[in-house]
Amino acid sequence: MPHVVTDACIRCKYTDCVDVCPVDCFHEGPNFLAINPDECIDCAVCVPECPVGAIYAEEDVPADQQHFIQLNAELSQKFPVITRTKAALPDADEWKDVKDKLKYLER
Predict the structure, then answer these.
(1) Which of 68, 85, 97, 105 sits between 20 and 30 A of 27, alpha carbons compared?
(2) Which pLDDT score is estimated for 57?
């Protein structure tokens, strides 16, 4: 089962998870990261690296976040691969504890 980036990543886009990924399965959008489920090898090394707890194993995605499974699959096909850590978005710290951010997702 692949891992999934969920709502907490939106408008933060901390990229600590990217450097530890052994298969470069992260894809970068304007304000969100997505994991390509076909490339993820379920190693879970990215999970503890995410400072906002946005990454889950697919089988552990909370019920209210299930739509992110399909969203990661879709957006990882549109967003370019990211392989190195970058600075978080400038106002990431202001957004890290905000809930229900899907309406702010930029595609």
Answers:
(1) 97
(2) 98
